[in-house]
Write a structure and sequence with these properties.
- The chain has a single domain, classed as Jelly Rolls (Sandwich), CATH 2.60.120.10.
- The protein is 34% helix and 24% strand.
- It is built from four helices and eight strands; from the N terminus they run ββββββαββααα.
Length: 164
């Protein structure tokens, strides 16, 4: 089993558009999931809690991350790399892997449709805003994942939804 990793409040766990090379199982804590909308507005997507996982769609599909994840509380998580997943899947019949990849692709499409038509989660927005604001004022960085496409600037307001 992988060694647990700790993340401090405000530390990024995943960044949008980075290569999805792993997923995480949350052993303790809460993680806010969000996207950056037009003008870098924050679009809250959900909260991942103890016993849940994140990053699974990207690691299964091999695509880039579709959202960002930031620790809302101190978080302990186990990292599941693509290699570990592939090793475990190699022990299963080929149809299991094909089924998992197909499900991930369908779920990613459904997820994107829901995001386009869903209203923002105000409770999550209220949790994320002060953390991101503090990161901006302190010049906080990610756990070694600096992402030039998101230099830490942007509006910390709810994104306006427009019909697709």
């Amino acid at each position: 089993m992988q060694k647990p990793m700790d993340f401090e409040v405000g530390q990024y766990i995943l960044r949008e558009f980075e290569v999805a090379d792993c997923a995480y199982v949350i052993l303790s804590g809460e993680v806010g999931i969000f996207k950056r909308g037009e003008g870098q507005d924050i679009v809250p997507l959900g909260i991942i809690k103890t016993g849940e996982y994140l990053g699974e769609l990207g690691v299964v599909s091999g695509k880039v991350r579709s959202a960002e994840a930031i620790a809302l509380t101190p978080v302990t998580a186990v990292k599941i790399t693509r290699e570990i997943l592939e090793t475990e899947l190699s022990k299963a019949p080929a149809w299991v892997s094909a089924l998992l990849i197909g499900m991930a692709e369908r779920l990613a499409k459904a997820d994107e449709l829901l995001r386009k038509h869903q209203t923002s989660d105000q409770i999550l927005l209220q949790k994320i805003q002060p953390i991101l604001q503090r990161n901006l004022t302190q010049g906080s960085s990610v756990h070694g994942n600096s992402n030039p496409s998101h230099p830490g600037q942007g509006n910390l307001t709810q994104s306006k939804k427009t019909p697709a």
